[in-house]
Amino acid sequence: MAAIQREYKDRLFNFIFGSEENKAWTLSLYNAVNGTAYTNPDDVQINTIKDVLYLGMHNDTSFLLTDDMNLYEQQSTYNPNMPLRMMQYAGNLFEKYIKENELNKYGSELLQLPVPKLITFYNGVKDTADETILKLSDSFPKGSKPDIEVSVRMINVNHGRNQELMDACEPLKEYSWLMQEIRNNRKTMEIEDAVDKALMDMPKEYVIKPFLDAHKMEVSGMLLTEYNEAEAMELFRKDGEKEGIDKTRVESIKTVMKKLKYTAQQAMDLLEIPAADQTKYLAKL
Q1: Which of 35, 199, 221, 244 has its C-alpha lying 20 to 30 A from 113's C-alpha?
Q2: C-alpha–C-alpha distance, residues 202 and 137, integer Å
Q3: CA distance 107 to 84
Q4: CA-closest candidate to residue 60, choices 109, 123, 108
Q5: pLDDT (tens digit per residue) in 173-214
Q6: ∠ at Cα 119 (114, 121), nearest 5°?
């Protein structure tokens, strides 16, 4: 595995649903996704790993509840490789769980482990179904019989989609509204103004509004970073399709470094440039 690549950068989704302060919202999201009716937020045990990053990937939100180990990821760009990424995240979390509970994975007794529940909340512009099951086996050659499988529920949380789910979780519905409002504003204004206007226009009755207002500078910074990263990734993909990835990587790295004030390493991690190729591109910057 690669070494730690860059410091953890929180996302708004995790800021809302993955903090100790907002465990009631985490529980609401869990209930909506699973059709349950748990009522005690203190039963939620946040266990997100924030200090282990592999190839620029990090675990957004994870928590234990009853017998489930829940891994929740928010994605603004469509990524069919989430089963592979989730498998890596789950491995790290299980290792953490084993150490914290002083379990012996080399012993003769069968370990009892929490059930992994892997979910990606997708709010990108690519049209997808309300819910899609992504499978690791889709990455293997057709006709093969792999000894491992990973399934991830990809739930479309764009505004206007999955209405029943949204009605069951007000914070998720409001988060969805905010992201759509920023996207609408972005058509006529710069991203900084689009974010500020969306936060200002958020209805006063929204349950997440007081929290976002209290952390406005942090929230704005998260949103600006998320949208700039998403736009950089989309530009990288389009350039790669037009001219060939190898011809555009250096310019893409430079663009991300300049626009986001990232180091070369951070930019390459964001663009998911393979570790084996990074050294040669560093030499060209």
Answers
A1: 35
A2: 42
A3: 28
A4: 123
A5: 999 999 999 999 989 988 889 999 999 999 999 999 999 999
A6: 150
Question: d(Cα 173, Cα 211) in Å, to the nearest integer?
Answer: 15
**Nearest in space to 186 (alpha carbons), one of 198, 174, 177:** 198
Q: Which pTM was predicted?
A: 0.80
Map out the domains of the chain as residue ranges: 12-243
